[in-house]
Specification:
Elements lengths: L9 E5 L4 H17 L4 E6 L4 H4 L7 E4 L5 H15 L3 E4 L4 H9 L4 E4 L15 E2 L9 H11 L16 H18 L8 E6 L11 H15 L1 E6 L5 H10 L4 E3 L6 H10 L2 E5 L2 H8 L4 E5 L4 H4 L8 E3 L18 H4 L3 H13 L1
Parallel strand pairs: 1-2, 1-4, 2-3, 4-5, 5-6, 7-8, 7-10, 8-9, 10-11, 11-12
Helix pairs in contact: 1-5, 1-10, 6-9, 7-8, 7-13
Length: 352
């Protein structure tokens, strides 16, 4: 550890929101706790990602920021942080709000992103910075640089510390039983399963329902592989259309699992397929191979850990544009990713 940073008694990690970002930062928590088992490690997070840090073996305390509560909620949150008197804050979010959060904690040592990589003047609020990173470096490695600056021994392979409980696994297995009965396939335990992660927070990241239908049909007819569709309420209409387009069994788990129960789903499948999303990173964190689809966002920065060689990227010149919605090409980047290429990657996984 750097001599200028005393060994802390308590550490706060600030990473509030995106499910995929929080998932990819979890190995840092494991790395910290592995080296300093007696340190009190807290995490400041928004409700959407809280299930990932609740009951995590490396995290002692979860402090929730209710973003929907506006400024009053924000200052109540920072007062709570200040009352904890943290020795060290790790600002993993690199935006203005996380920088202000870090500063208002009044921790003497506050580590954030280098000015070259921080956004919205975030770097002004922290006392130390990690070394600069190349713009399209894997984000999971961004977070590991905080451990490097602290002098923590490297931990490879990365340990996400995410495991479904026995109760969560039993609930998911029962849900799969019901879905299998609805699909008319009998016992799903005798089938090879692949998860389809059909949703994303950005419309520009969606792969077409026609392409997914081709994959579902081809996997079943060529290899007897049954597709398991996962997603939230926002994916219900998409999944209903997908079901109407296929004439083979498909297990529909949309709206039937929470984030932690997804861990149990991915434990039961041999492979996952999907575009850039939080559940994609959760699948990777369980060790499940992920065939990932890329158009508006960067595979170099965000490819799922352990499946970097299973990514399918758009060749279109405007990709990645990092736009939530396509400005005029009708998400051509995603529409032009052919099902045949996805099926080829699935075959690669099955035969390697």
């Amino acid at each position: 550890m750097s001599r200028s940073i005393p060994e802390p008694r308590s550490i706060l990690i600030v990473l509030h929101g995106a499910i995929g970002d929080v998932t990819r930062a979890l190995p840092l928590a494991t790395r910290i706790k592995r080296h300093w088992p007696t340190v009190h490690l807290a995490w400041g997070v928004e409700p959407i990602s809280r299930p990932l840090v609740d009951r995590h073996p490396a995290i002692d305390e979860v402090i929730v920021f209710q973003r929907s509560g506006g400024l009053r909620a924000f200052f109540a949150y920072t007062r709570e942080l200040r009352s904890r008197r943290f020795d060290l804050v790790l600002d993993l979010q690199r935006h203005f709000k996380s920088g202000v959060t870090s500063m208002l904690s009044r921790a003497r040592t506050r580590i954030g992103f280098h000015p070259r990589n921080a956004k919205e003047f975030n770097w002004l609020f922290n006392t130390r910075w990690i070394s600069p990173v190349i713009h399209f470096s894997p984000k999971i490695e961004y977070y590991q640089r905080f451990g490097d600056l602290l002098g923590l021994p490297e931990l490879r392979p990365l340990d996400f510390g995410l495991h479904a409980s026995d109760d969560e696994q039993a609930k998911v297995d029962a849900t799969l039983d019901e879905a299998a009965r609805d699909a008319g396939i009998g016992d799903w335990r005798t089938c090879a399963l692949v998860a389809l992660i059909v949703g994303s927070t950005w419309p520009s990241r969606f792969w077409s329902v026609e392409h997914y239908a081709t994959v579902v049909e081809s996997l079943y007819r060529s290899r007897g592989i049954v597709s398991v569709v996962v997603g939230a309420r926002s994916e219900r209409a998409f999944t209903n259309e997908l079901r109407s387009r296929v004439a083979v069994p498909m297990l529909d788990l949309v709206e039937q699992t929470n984030l932690r129960e997804l861990l149990a789903v991915f434990r039961r499948v041999g492979l996952a397929i999907g575009s850039d999303s939080g559940p994609m990173h959760i699948a990777a964190a369980t060790g499940t191979p992920v065939v990932s689809l890329w158009g508006s966002t960067s595979a170099e920065r965000s490819a799922p850990y352990g499946s970097e060689d299973l990514r399918l990227e758009s060749p279109i010149g405007c990709s990645p544009c990092f736009r939530r919605e396509c400005p005029g090409l009708g998400t051509l980047c995603m529409r032009d990713l052919p099902p045949a290429a996805v099926l080829g990657m699935v075959e690669h996984v099955l035969t390697r």
